[in-house]
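Researcher: Here's a chain I'd like modeled. Treat it as a single chain, no partners, no ligands.
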Amino acid sequence: MTNLAIRISPPEGVPISFRIATGGQRFGAQLLDILITFGGMFLFFLAMIWSGIFDWSLIATLFLLLVFFLRVPYYIFSELVWNGRTIGKRIVKIRVVSADGGRLTPHQITARNLMKEVEVFMPATTILSATVESGWVTFALVIWMLLVLLVPLFNKKRQRLGDMIAGTYVIDQPQSVLLPDLAANGTSQAAGFVFDTVHLEVYGRYELQVLEEILRQKPRTPEAVTRMEDVSKTIQRKIGYAEKVAQGDNWDFLSDFYRQQRQYLESRQLFGDAREDKYHEKTKEPE
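Model: Modeled as a single isolated chain. Structure tokens:
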């Protein structure tokens, strides 16, 4: 299954292209997360059963309760901490993003993961626990799971019900590599524009990668020039850059900002301050 492309417009107004994660990627990430949440606990309870310490019915009930109270916090907490990624998603290199281009909110993460319980996990747990005596109820639960699993196959953006309700996409995000030093691409290292810490505190790695899309090639069409100028003006406004940037200097402004922003982020990384995006918490400067 090929990756479908979507375009998201962040608040800055610069459209970004992403590739929707394939069904195979999502299945692989989900399988890894299931192994993580179930694996250790399953082995623990097998040891308890083998030892004969508890009655089987008590162990089964306790297992189901503990799995639920481990699984739900795992998905929600992981995606909150790692900006839309669980351990499985990090390994497969996919992530959840907000459809409006903004930062994922706790509400979105909670909504999509609670819906996952309703869509698959709770029906599957009910069937496997053998607590349903009616064959019709079991049949209905199986049909429900099959239908919800087919939902991503019948919409262009491969959203499951939880993604539709939360307003999220799951995208392919291969290992990001920042551009080589712009000087290697013919950009002068002599900075015509100088930015201080206040300017460089605003954005993070995510926005730096977005800026790369603009700087990969000088604009050659009027539309590309207009877009580049709009990006320059947006950054000037966001970082509070007070100096006047002449009409023909926007490319140099962006190039200088990119280089200095990258150097700043890399220096912060040395102190353990990984600034993923503009929503990062500003940390105290090292003494």
